[in-house]
Amino acid sequence: MTIQKVEISQKTIIFTAIFLLSTFVAWQLRNIILLFFLCFIFMEALNPAVLFLQKFRIPKVIAILILYFLIWSGISFSLAGAIPIIVTETTNLIKILPSTLDKFTLMGVSPVDISTQLKLLENIPGTFASTILSVFSNLVSVFAFFVITFYLLLERKNFEKYAIKFFSDKDSKKVLEIITLLERRLGRWVSGQLFLMLVIGVLSYVGYFAIGLNYALPLGIIAGFLEMVPNIGPVVTSVLACLVGLTVSPTIALMAVGCGLVVQQLENNIIVPKVMKDNLGLNPLVTIFLIAVGGSLAGVIGAIIAIPLFLTASVFYEVLKK
User: Fold this and answer.
1) Is residue 12 in some structural domain?
2) Does 73 reside within a domain?
3) Domain tally for the chain?
4) What is the percent of the chain with per-residue pLDDT over 70, rounded to a whole number?
5) How many beta carbons lie within 10 A of that of residue 10, not counting itself?
6) Which H or E run contains 23?
7) Strand partners for 106
8) Sign of the dihedral defined by the CA atoms of residues 54, 36, 194, 240, in that order
9) Fewer CB atoms inside 10 A, N or C side of the chain?
């Protein structure tokens, strides 16, 4: 039996060591990297609007501040409408649901037993509200996010200069190509996502308004914002709409659920596949798979950034393989 000698060059050892060290450092700094990646995506979302405002001779700093004001106004309006609905309507539901269940027999289970178990839900409104508020109470992270995005928007015009300064001629061309492709594809994703949010929000509002559901406008706004997580947003909104409907009558609740199902079917089978295919050229199955994997690995944030991460990786692969 011949023993084969495997030789490992010094270059291979150094490359492996650097790769492992870089991977370790990247993992330790994953939260910061994620923050900058989200800021870059947000910059791509705002940059077209900033350029549009500059056409009217508005200084860039003022244009960015105007957009920030509009964004915070929209978030504040949505929260002001959403939190009271969740707290008030869920509390009312818990109060009236036992009497409603007395009229039904559910698969042989005593309504009294169900009512007893539902008392465990009494803390849900307060818990949900405190959770929402705690997310937005971390002012340091929110402030850092908007500050980093602010400076990225200011420095966007200098990206080409920085690439030429810090890289060789050959590498700077690849860096600029990566930036250009990222801007184009992430910009398409952002515009497609904003369009989806608008469409789902409007469809939800029209449906809830048509059936006479209370708080149709806030529910439509919530559905629009939750569309940031495709396939999940309409489901969560349908549950909330059902809770609101049950405070009126079981019929309204069923109609609200039906409305949510219609919107979800339109979203899954027509709207999302059409928008993502037209904007990004992504197969609908790939879109669903990426969202599922992202949600499984990193929860809601993972589901939101799954497609942008895939687009970023595909751009790097496309450029660097040349």
Assistant:
1) no
2) yes
3) 1
4) 75
5) 7
6) helix 10-28
7) 109
8) negative
9) N
